[in-house]
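Q: How would the structure tokens look for this protein?
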Amino acid sequence: MTTAQPIIAEERALGLSAKGDHGRVLRIDVTDMAASLPPQEIERRLIELGFVEGAEVRILHEGLFGRDPIAVRVNGATVALRRREAMAIFIG
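A: Here is the predicted structure in token form.
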């Protein structure tokens, strides 16, 4: 008799996701970001937008050129993000 193993969703950066992809926020990691703002400020802004652990997210739309920016539904609100910022949000 075999026992069923729980299905564990693979962690991926929201910035690598395509239109229609969805998941829950697992963590925010701004350590490797090259941006004009300090990493702590980017993290604070993402949290204020609703990207907190456990929040449901879905990619609603991608920009025409370079697929940037993206429109994301996060806990019922629609937010526009640059892909470079979305790379700090990990979903599963």
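The longest strand covers residues 22-28.

The chain has two helices and six strands.

Upvote if useful.
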